[in-house]
């Protein structure tokens, strides 16, 4: 058998030959026919390979070419099994409402409920059965989940299509990305830290100072309401989506008091009456939460698209009453001026922060240098420092200057360089603040310009 | 149609991997009886066999802690480990946590076992092992790996002989699975419950069974007589006789009385026992040769030990709880040769390093017969006992000195503990689910090939010298292996 397959490999010509091993059988190679090989072996010394045959009429060469021709023309045929499971895309590219299937929900562990001892009996109609003997858990019926999720998607789509504001709340660890993404898709708000109790029932006290703006039907900001907006009431969402109702009872209660409808994931241990539109599913698995939140976000996106498309056609659903008067003369210009000033101040603050960071890097390198002067070679130390500082510009420059000289004399010169740098360096934050306070006569409130780290967690906006 | 079939959720869940997880096995008893008395193993000790399914997950999901369970598992214990395998004790508990632990112990043990290349063989009883040359037979031979009570022996008797382990002529078709329980291993209450549960209601079925057996035996007798007279019976004759020879109720009463009477004298070897065993499909009841009844003791624990000893003394003890291979290995033979890249096929398997778990001289000052070795995660007996090793040591002076020293006494100064090089032989799974591995001391030549260095050079030199001189073999060279393996190893 082995011999036959060997022959097969060497081309069609060898096939009709006898497959029995005999003395006359000679191993064929691609490099030449037997006769040529024999001649060459007579001439050339033994142990050297026969030279390559370039004759295109040779049968074996033809076979070889045919084989490669076939390979080139058939290798793209058939299927390739590609990996279809891409969990990293779940947040960035969430499923649309029409993509919701029972299979998807099951793969996302949406059906796994809590231990039976933890259940809330009001969920009985969503529960499919009990699984396990030693550790019984409730199993949520997937068709119910899919139906309720589709209904919730329709509600969100309807709210956003009428210009409503949706607030996505998911305060458990790891839910932030999904919540932010859903809010981004549906043009709503997000909350992934603690709900400040009273933000709805006592909104004027808690969120009253927050910035607001007026937009037209195409979501373009309209200036000129700067004098009226601080007097209007704090915004309230038109719909709240809560991914973990158990921890956000206060929020749901406030929504109930203000007739704000709520959508939420109800695991088997949650009271479903807390929510207007419950979605029975597993709220502990991040994957399940991401699928549900993503589908709701996609529904919001569809609603927004519908609204904007209608607005382009001139069909606008007006808010019943906004209580704003038309802008007074010159108010629009004043608003724009304030905006521009705020923008400039923000740029200044950022520049100052960058300069501070660079100065700190240089100072750090200098301290290291002073401590380990006698122990480590200069260049090595500078490299180390540059690495630790993440390769900032100043550190790299200093690094180069260190590398230039190894002697004591040049060390003094470097000190001079440093001192001159200290002399010429830009102002520090305190100095800059002082300078700004002196320069700016009109005076704007410094508190308005906060660094990104201090950004408010509230996300109410108009 | 039930709810479980009609609902779309149900149809999906039936193919769910989570729902396919098998129920955990009952935990094995960790108490063992040693010469020092009862020894209770620790709660955290690796169990003799896994009871829970081990679960793993693809790397992309592992990064997210997603094992397909109720909630993601914490990173600290699952992601920052080289063996991300877990077993689930509870999906969800009252404390809102998923109860899990690492399953790396059994997963790694299984991997090591596969690397050793040990085939699982049929268990040979302790009493029989020493008596004669009973060959080890793979559990995958056709006459052992069988669950069908009506299976007949295949004609191909050479089946087992092709592999290295020569299969003896199988006398009877064997089974590893029975419908009935193993009565000798039952306790009294358990036995009573079993009797009450379904035996009493099967009286009519039993009478019909006995009647059919009686008819069969009568027909067989008639056929024999017909053959002797030179008039073989046709199928039609047999069909007619089957109706004619059917015993009447009076005859049946007589037959039952005879069966009972013979049982009084013959006990377990009686005809009645055989009939009952066949009717209820009981394992290992009818043993014509066995004369040692199972000892009756007072407490349950003692009874279990007594049963265990009885089982160890007799290979036909309780039937295995699983397939005799326990799914641990699917190798039928160890008659394979490892191929060394430089020295070619080797006569002996590559040696592995075994840890001396218990030396012959224990800390209590007792002198045990055998040292206990830990080979690939399994405890094995050192094949050289106190008496046999000294004899061997005299025969091959230098190479065996080290293993003997290692197994004799624990050297507390030695870094890494006492180690012995062994080569894995065969293994069997006993009726309690414990894997028993047999090992041999490593051959010096195989060890030299394994370790390389000066030792190997010395062996190669000696081989070369012996070849040059002729048959005058040097004392450093191991004697040649069996004739069947001549030409392999270093030549």
TrEMBL record, chain A:
GO cellular component, one term: mitochondrial small ribosomal subunit
Keyword tags: Ribonucleoprotein, Ribosomal protein
MF-aspect GO terms: structural constituent of ribosome
Biological process, per Gene Ontology: translation
Presence of the UniProt keyword Oxidoreductase in the record: no
Keyword Hydrolase among record annotations: no
Chain segments carrying region Disordered: 14-52, 401-462
Domain of life of the native organism: Eukaryota
Composition bias type Acidic residues, residue spans: 407-417
Pfam families: Ribosomal_S2 (PF00318)
Entry's family note: Belongs to the universal ribosomal protein uS2 family.
HAMAP family noted in UniProt: Ribosomal_uS2_B
Protein name: Ribosomal protein S2
Organism from which the protein derives: Extremus antarcticus
From TrEMBL, chain B:
One GO term describing the cellular component: mitochondrial small ribosomal subunit
Biased composition (Polar residues): 386-395
GO molecular function annotation: structural constituent of ribosome
Pfam families in UniProt: Mit_ribos_Mrp51
Region feature (Disordered): 148-167, 372-402
Biological process according to GO: mitochondrial translational initiation
Biased composition (Basic and acidic residues): 149-161
InterPro entries found in the cross-reference section: Rbsml_bS1m-like
Entry protein name: Uncharacterized protein
Source organism of this protein record: Extremus antarcticus
